[in-house]
Amino acid sequence: MKRLILSGEPAGSIPATKRLIEQEWGAKAADTAGMTEVGTIMVFECEKQPGGTHIIEDHYIEEVVDPQTGRPVGYGELGERLITSFGRGFIPVLRYRTRDLVVRVPASGCTCGRTFDLYEGGIRGRVDDMKLVRGTNVYPRAVESIVREFEEIDEFRIHLYTAEGRQDEIEVLVEIPERDGASADRIIAELGKALSQAHEGLRFGVKKVENGSLPRFELKAKRLQDDRIVIGTAGERRVTA
Predict the structure, then answer these.
(1) Quick one: which of 112, 107, 25, 24 has its CA closest to 62?
(2) Rounded to 10 degrees, what is the CA torsion of 17, 18, 20, 26?
(3) CATH no. for 3-126
(4) Fewer CB within a 10 Å sphere, N or C end of the chain?
């Protein structure tokens, strides 16, 4: 195995996850993304691997807008992709809202010589993936990018729940195989601190679980479990996602 083309997951655009995949396979990995609605690949990572993916601008018009207002955002700002496709005439796609979060930067950010602009960091996540926890926005991709910096962690899951005091809580369950208690304690403490610092001081619980107890995925991974209780005019209801 010499080359890996990654698509359909944020793994190819998360440096730590991508590095882990390359180590396990002993091959060079590259990121890409496509959509059924447009019929083919929309972005690709070139051989220079500039930390992002080139937009195939001779097939698509891509815009980046504020997901709430729909107003355009500039280079370097996080927003939602709007896409117009030229390549699938029998299913016209005009200014289609993808729900993908991206940061567009100029083509000059890569040395390969192409004039196609880039999405820095590839697809950053989904607008509807965002979870609001005690007033702080939490994206699963951002959590994974931090967790994967700890090579000792084999698998993880993000768990949202409502505590007895009616307060939303977030914890990250981790498998740390073949490590003694002191080492696991250190990893848990460092991970909790790193997650909090990256999320405006939001407190994350980090809990070690039994090795092999967390689910594995062959297709799209679902590493977030939302068990919070929502209180509304109709009373309590539990939301599991």
Answers:
(1) 107
(2) 160
(3) 3.40.50.12780
(4) N
